Amino acid sequence: LDWTRQHAPDRSSVHPLALPSLLRLPAASPPPPPSMASADAAAPAASDLIDFLNASPTAFHAVEDEAKRRLKAAGYAQLSEREEWTGLEPGRKYFFTRNYSTIVAFAIGAKYVAGNGFHIIGAHTDSPCLKLKPVSKVTKGGYLEVGVQTYGGGLWYTWFDRDLTVAGRVIVKEKNEGGVSYAHKLVRVQEPIMRIPTLAIHLDRTLSSEGLKINSQSHLVPVLATSIKNEMQKLVGENGPNESSENKNTKHHPLLLQLIAKEANCEPDEITDFELQLCDTQPSIIAGAMKEFIFSGRLDNLCMSFCSLKALIDSTSAEHSLDHESGVRMVALFDHEEVGSNSAQGAGSPAMLDALSRITASFNTSNSQLLEKAIQRSFLVSADMAHALHPNYMDKHEENHQPKMHGGLVIKHNANQRYATNAVTAFIFREIAERHGLPIQDFVVRNDMGCGSTIGPILASGVGIRTVDIGAPQLSMHSIREMCAVDDINHSYEHFKAYFEEFTELDSKVKVDC
């Protein structure tokens, strides 16, 4: 209101007929109100997140193209789980990948000794999507279609009438002097090549009264091309698939294989297999009238993956940042959370426990009880996006627990252990926020509604590590286009960075199980 009064004209001295002209925008706009400036101040971390999201259409791209590249640029050395970890040193930084869709990065404190704790943030790299079937070739009604299967609990109606493409990884057969080898390559077709069209309301008069009813088997089938256009291209088009490629692979449309082969820089018959998924071609953006929101797919949970990774890198980048650290700072980004985490690269696998064990053992092989000691000194922040209060569905939130946009990270509680938070772990995470003047919120699901879950209870029960479940608030979770607040990206990053830098000192003052 102060800003409005300052820049509004004095209407007491203006003739009424002149008022309309004063409503036009002036040649030079007045300075922005304070709220606009605060949105701009939060933009650097958010802009970096936008780049991360746009480069990560799949979990493979998030790990291989983004996380791995950023870690290497920050001086992290890559390890292999297939080799011995004999050369680990205090003050050094490392990472490893599993299946190219899970990544674990860690920085060893200069004062670390075997048996000291690990300070971990865990998140996940996968999101609900439509994945191509092993045999995706569908032809009906004069159309070439692509068979897909649903992955996770997506809001599938949001995938209709979107400009879609494919991305993922392919296994390519390569000939060399020594014979034949098989390479893993990431691919992404940039232009929109598919669409799942809705049925016109004129052909479904029950839509207005009964709503959209989706059969995921028969309705979620994207259109790739028309059969007649495809046949014409094969006859006269110079870029059509050759005869040998078409004869050797009958599982997928040759047209689709041709597009994928072009991205993989190979011939269609050199593609031995692939894991591909549909992706929206609309880029992630900072938007809203005040530029306060992020509109994007895959915020759940690439947003938390990005913030935790950036916090780890920035908390270990200065020359002496690990000099006084006695623990190990770690980020673990898992695949397959959206389908239960039960895979070799999910949080239900031994991936994180293997890392803790191998790091501990590399500094002391004589005492077999040091790992158990280290786990009891460790702490896990399970970071997964949270449900912001929806203005059009306010009754879906419990009255005293309504997380707001711009309100900071949300601590998730559930008495039935759907979240792993307890009083001690909530206090530690909240205390770090209070030390830095960061906002913090709480969430409890209504008693008459079911509660989702995260990797937190899986790792807490499987490893035995103290855990707090948290997440940044968002709307439209599991839609093809989600939204969150720019301010909360900064809040999350600053909170995570402070956690890495201050947990060791704070935990030494918490007296539990002594």
Would you mind describing this structure in some detail?
- One of its GO terms (molecular function) is zinc ion binding.
- Its cofactor is Zn(2+).
- The protein is of the alpha/beta class and 514 residues long.
- The protein has a 9-stranded mixed β-sheet, with helices on both faces. The protein has a 5-stranded mixed β-sheet with strand order 11-12-20-19-15.
- It has 15 helices and 20 strands.
- The longest helix is centred in the last third of the chain and has 22 residues, at 486-507.
- The chain folds into 2 domains: 44-127 and 297-508, Zn peptidases (Aminopeptidase), CATH 3.40.630.10; 129-238 and 248-280, Aminopeptidase i, Domain 2 (Roll).
- The protein is globular, with a radius of gyration of 26 Å.
What would the keywords be for this entry?
alpha/beta, Aminopeptidase i, Domain 2, 20 strands, disordered N terminus, five-stranded mixed beta sheet, single chain, 31% helix, Aminopeptidase, 514 residues
Compact summary:
This is Aspartyl aminopeptidase. The chain has 514 residues and is of the alpha/beta class.
How is the secondary structure organized here?
Elements: H1 2-7, H2 19-22, H3 34-41, H4 43-54, H5 59-73, E1 77-78, E2 93-98, E3 102-108, E4 118-124, E5 129-140, E6 143-151, E7 164-176, E8 179-188, H6 207-210, E9 223-226, H7 227-236, H8 243-248, H9 254-264, E10 271-280, E11 285-287, E12 293-296, H10 299-315, E13 328-334, H11 351-363, H12 370-376, E14 379-383, E15 386-387, E16 409-413, H13 423-435, E17 440-444, H14 455-463, E18 466-471, E19 473-475, E20 482-485, H15 486-507
Parallel strand pairs: 1-2, 4-13, 4-14, 14-18, 15-19, 16-17
Antiparallel strand pairs: 2-3, 3-13, 5-6, 6-9, 7-8, 7-10, 11-12, 12-20, 16-18, 19-20
Helix pairs in contact: 4-15, 5-10, 10-15, 11-12, 13-15
